User: Fold this.
Amino acid sequence: MKTLILYGTRYGSTQRYVHILAEKIAGEVTVENLGKNKNPDIKPYDVIIIGGPIMAGKMHSAVSRFVNVNLQKLLSKKTALFICCLHQGEKARQQLVDAFSPKLVEEAAGYQYFGGEVDFRKLNFFLKGLMRKVMKTEKNVSHISTENIEQLAQAVNHVSSEQDGKK
Ligand SMILES: Cc1cc2nc3c(=O)[nH]c(=O)nc-3n(C[C@H](O)[C@H](O)[C@H](O)COP(=O)(O)O)c2cc1C
Assistant:
């Protein structure tokens, strides 16, 4: 079973969370940063996991671009979706649904939010202001949801074992 994880990141937390996820996925796992490789070939893979951070309510541009260009190809595969974000619960779920095509969300084997991190020292003046407005905080925040990462890995591993059973 071959799994490809595609992600975008601006400040690096998504990359870290993706590597935690990758360790939990059974079989062969390949990880690609869409900010560096904009057009990876998804054909050789059985499962595609795709996601990135939400900023001001929007998905990372490299991820949304890849999803828009490759929507039909993605819909022909088993997929799982995730976002990194600071909101939790229903607000996080809504951000995820808004970040991807509704059909992709509907067809996904699983979708989760992984939590997020903000280090104010890394933000420029404009982004600090935006962050204060959107998240109503001026403090560094770090909360990873290892439980949600685990749940997404389990959903993917379940799909893998089903497909292996059919072979
Ligand atoms: C300028 C800015 C805007 C953000 N806007 C949102 C938002 O609208 N909703 C949310 O849940 N999290 C928001 N976040 C939190 C990010 O999604 C979180 O910091 C994420 O972990 C960043 O991922 P990265 O380190 O991979 O770039 C924002 C963060 C920044 C810096």
Notes: The mean pLDDT is 94. Helices lie at 13-24, 61-69, 71-75, 89-99, 102-107, 125-135, 146-166. The chain has seven helices and eight strands. The radius of gyration is 16 Å.
